[in-house]
Amino acid sequence: MRISEYEFQPTGEKETGEYSRGEISFNYSGFGASITTSDVVVIGGLNYHPVETTAIGQGQNTIVVRADNLGEEYNQSTGQSFTVKGSSFTANSMNIVGGSKRTITTVSQGDYDTALAALPVVNRQAGETELANSFAADVLALPRAAFSSTTGDPISTPAVDEETTPDQMAVIKQTTTFVGYGVKKTDLERFIESKEQTRLENQPGTRIFDLGFDKIFFDAYSETDGQMGAWLKTTTVVGPDISEESIKEAIAGKKTAEATRVINGKDIMSATVKLNLFWASTVPTDYDRIMVEIKIGD
Q1: What is the pLDDT of residues 200-248, one digit of tens each?
Q2: What sign for the dihedral angle of Cα 273, 276, 281, 282?
Q3: At a CB cut-off of 8 Å and minimum separation 6, what does 242 contact?
Q4: What is the residue-wise DSSP string for 94-142?
Q5: Integer distance in angstroms from the first to the last C-alpha of the chain?
Q6: Residues 133, 108: contact at Cβ < 8 Å?
Q7: By C-alpha distance, which of 261, 286, 283, 284 is closest to 271?
Q8: Residue 235's CB: how many other CB atoms inside 10 A?
């Protein structure tokens, strides 16, 4: 996983605060009317709207209003007149409070867009290398062609329109997650050996000398539901089922020429018997003093 980030200075501004809200009590001389949430209540040139539709009748009535804008100037007290539905009324009591307004610093959309354009591009090669090097020693990683990556959405902290302080820097980050696949070497060896054993079932007298682990090549990758499949190619080495112990048993105590003749037989391309001591002419009888090296030809 690699994170690309860029720090920037927020320059946005917006007004925030509370809307004034409260009750107006007044006398009404008519009958069967109502004041709805779409009616505009005007007090001292400032607009308010009722928070709910209220039926009014003859006598004293009360409505609850909310200011259309932020600010302390929308706070009102007893004695004010107001108009609604084209009629003017004098309030018996009026208690509209809680209004406030202040200007805050924010991350503007323009700040975000500029920072996004300046966000460093993730070095994918470095990310893949870092991932490849993170595999355990007992795991064989598939080649880079099988790697993939997912880049998340850029995230600004603070977010667009969120409040910050004039001296606070904002940062935009974007995370790229790299995905690679590997196979445990022991599982891979067992797999290759099983395939070769099956192939050699009809070839008696042969055995596997080299599983070709250092020649493995993966190809034709396909991913399904998070599982990666691939073709595995390698070159194994098989040959006649000759063991070192059987050769030692066959040549122990024999003269050089006879020992060479004994092991120069079927499936043996050539055999050489070497004695370490120049004056010796007989192979030792002690198996521990006999070293056998079997080389498989092409």
Answers
A1: 888 887 888 888 888 888 887 787 877 788 888 998 888 877 778 888 8
A2: negative
A3: 267, 268, 294
A4: EEEE--EEEEEEEB-HHHHHHHHHHSPPP-HHHHHHHHHHTS-TTEEEP
A5: 45
A6: no
A7: 261
A8: 11
As given in the structure block, the two tokens for residue 62 are: 């009360």
Structure tokens given for 134: 């993170």
Read off the tokens for 97: 């409070």
Classified as helix, coil or strand, 284 is: coil
Which token pair is 108? 């503007």
Count of Cβ atoms closer than 10 Å to residue 42 Cβ: 13
Other CB atoms within a 10 A radius of the CB of residue 162 amount to: 14
What is the identity of the amino acid at 286? D
3-class secondary-structure state, position 10: coil
Q: Whose structure tokens read 């590997």? A: 182
Dig out the tokens for 54 from the structure: 């209220």
Following DSSP, what letter does each residue of 60-92 receive, concatenated?
EEEEEEEEEEESGGG-B-TT-EEEETTEEEEEE
Answer yes or no: pTM beyond 0.70: no
Q: Is 249 helix (H, G, I), strand (E, B) or coil?
A: helix
